[in-house]
Design brief:
The chain is mainly α and 261 residues long. It has one domain. One of its GO terms (cellular component) is membrane.
């Protein structure tokens, strides 16, 4: 960090540095799922049997690069004055782990709350047809589809991601950590695979790929599962009933199969 703060300005680190970090983490974590799908590796853990065509995958990558450079980068540059005004800094010393942890937890909770309601609004008839349907072009999601969306949606739901840091003015290292964790979470939620080591197997409140994949498989009026990270918002407001019912049926079917064998 010492090297970065002595060789680059706050603006360069917060805008261009954040963009480079985002692109690196996003594509390095998302591209392997394209390879898994094309090669048919670990297919027993794939949630849906249907695969995307290479053309569909390439279309996603092309659009993502266009959106990232045409929307994300300008947004990061334009939001820098807000973060600076709220107290964000990149200088040493680094914040304590307690401060970092408390801020990250706050960001996850706030982002999930804002995202849930924003996502539900996007599933109203007009907004779905004209905006959110772009994201749902992929009924069988893979990691990179997590950020494949209409530019208006990128701005709309992107607010959920930046509102926490914007109002707390964190150290840049905390902002970068939040960005990395959020990117990894959304890529995992769209990856299309449910592994034995998936976080949702160990964290009861965590949604994960199985939870969000259900959202992509259904029609917009019946999908539910609107939360980004956790499951409690959907549980509280009853928008996960279809998913829970399906899980119960599958569980009962598995029990019957085990008894018969």
């Amino acid at each position: 960090m010492q090297y970065l703060v002595t060789h680059f300005s706050d603006f360069q680190l917060a805008s261009l540095g954040s963009f480079f970090l985002h692109e690196s983490v996003f594509f390095l974590s998302g591209l392997p799922f394209i390879y898994l799908e094309r090669a048919g590796l670990l297919s027993k853990y794939k949630i849906q049997t249907k695969n995307n065509t290479p053309a569909a995958q390439e279309k996603c990558i092309t659009r993502l690069l266009l959106y990232h450079f045409g929307v994300n980068l300008p947004l990061m540059i334009a939001s820098y004055p807000v973060f600076k005004f709220m107290g964000m800094k990149s200088s040493l010393p680094l914040p304590s782990w307690k401060v970092v942890l408390s801020q990250i937890i706050f960001y996850f909770i706030l982002e999930d709350f804002v995202f849930y309601w924003g996502h539900r609004i996007l599933h109203t008839k007009w907004l779905y047809k004209h905006v959110h349907s772009v994201h749902h072009e992929y009924a069988t999601p893979f990691g990179l589809t997590s950020e494949y969306a209409h530019p208006a949606e990128i701005l709309f739901l992107g607010f959920a991601t930046i509102v926490g840091p914007a109002i707390t003015g964190p150290h840049l290292i905390t902002l970068w950590l939040w960005m990395v964790l959020r990117v990894l979470e959304t890529v995992e939620a769209h990856c299309g695979y449910h592994f034995p080591w998936s976080l949702s197997n160990f964290l009861p409140l965590y949604g994960g790929a199985d939870f969000h994949d259900y959202h992509h498989r259904l029609l917009y009026t019946k999908s539910g599962n609107y939360s980004s990270t956790f499951v409690y918002m959907d549980w509280i407001f009853g928008t996960d009933k279809g998913y829970r019912k399906l899980k119960a049926i599958k569980h009962d079917g598995d029990d019957v199969y085990c008894k018969e064998t």
